[in-house]
């Protein structure tokens, strides 16, 4: 007993204070360094702490591997080591390998210890996301002679604590909280395990449905959009000189317009890009005015050449889609970012479900094999045979349910991949059509500038004629005025 008291007094040096340690000294030192590193995040003032780790009576013999599941907790700006999971066990059943024996505390030295962590999804309170993934770290020890069981559960709220308390006082669940006999105490530990495992498998159905609904809200209109895009109008080249007709009608045909003066068809078939049918809209532009027939310009007044530069009208292509209700919404990078966020949550859910199943299997295999260890009471195996069968069947049912949820997540991930591919195609088609529209606008602007150049040439000739006429009549006018 004095060793226990001395070990408890040195609890701040845990796990170096263990009386009988199952790890090497350098491993214990590494745990101490990790505790010092996470001290500010894990530990706080006594009045604000949720668990006084050092004042627990079993701290002098708790297996150090439990710290691996405690380190992900604490104050942190972002998730730290959240995806870590596993199962650890330590068994001391034979007389030759007894642990610490303290009859005053009910420690026979023949016990087993297990520790693991589980994760589940819970409804979040307050604003923000409606669901939150929570973790728990669990340590359990059971003495096979005295039937004394101890539990250490680390969790951010008191949900598991309230469930265990509720189960111990429930009339329909007499298994939990019965420690009058050894077999009843062992059955109580199995029932308590099932409480934790049931929490780990709860709410995943509704969380995955929440992700599926979010994905449908974002992408349901991608399956039947009507993307408006124009066909490039054909340039009216009837007024251009033959030697200047060298453009190619890239939109309708690769053939070169070789002195074609026939008017082109104002409509063309709309292209099909990435499986989407685009509605072609006809854009008409008025032809440029014909050149003047007279060599002498009409002096009705001159106007600015800048007024002749016609900027093409804005393209009807506006990078928008039509929903089934007829309301126009936009395809944007924001949609892609939201889909990426859903994919990240789905991948995290898949990993957590697999980790939980792995812990379930380890827990199930441990209790299957511990009963055949040397030193395990044969009477306990006979008396608790029915409890073990119920434990295994219930745990197997939970595992199967989680595998079904994993199948749902995998289907969701495949759907996300397909919708992302679809969105990439839509965004790419929008980019291509935007480039086509920009090219058409530049062609039309070039044609308008050509018209301005022709009119400038005509006005230059007119000014020369006016100058010649003035030179002819000015001397006579000057002479006649001089004789008056």
Write the layout of secondary structure elements.
Elements (H helix, E strand, L loop, with lengths): L1 H8 L15 H13 L1 H4 L24 H4 L16 E6 L18 E13 L7 E13 L5 E7 L3 H10 L13 H19 L3 H16 L52 E2 L2 E2 L42 E3 L5 E3 L2 H38 L7 H6 L1 H99 L1
Antiparallel strand pairs: 1-2, 2-3, 3-4, 5-6, 7-8
Helix pairs in contact: 6-10, 7-8, 7-10, 8-10
Features:
484 residues; alpha+beta; four-stranded antiparallel beta sheet; two-stranded antiparallel ribbon; 45% helix; 10% strand; elongated
Q: Mind explaining what this structure looks like?
A:
Helix content is 45%, strand content 10%. It is an alpha+beta fold and 484 residues long. Helix 6 runs parallel beside helix 10 (385-483). The longest helix is centred in the C-terminal third of the chain and has 99 residues, at 385-483. The protein starts with a helix and ends with a helix.
